Amino acid sequence: MGKDGVLARLADNPHRRLVEDTIQEMRWWACFRDDRPSRVEGTAQASAKSKRTALTTRAFAPIKKTKPKIGRNEPCTCGSGKKYKKCCGA
To answer: What is the pTM (predicted TM-score) of this model?
Structure first.
């Protein structure tokens, strides 16, 4: 099969052609579909909104270290006698 035969075969394949209309090509993607459910009405909508605000307004405590940080030139905590940077810190 020569060059012309391969090009003809690729031209017939819908996955191997140039994109001429981007919107039409990407319409099947889930993020570009417009089939989202309609807005929830009444109490279901209010409860969904209250859950959302409760999650966003809840304060998170910062993580605090209980042990001091090991310096790179300090002896390793595993007991090998090497510097931390040459042993477990590598």
So the answer is: 0.28
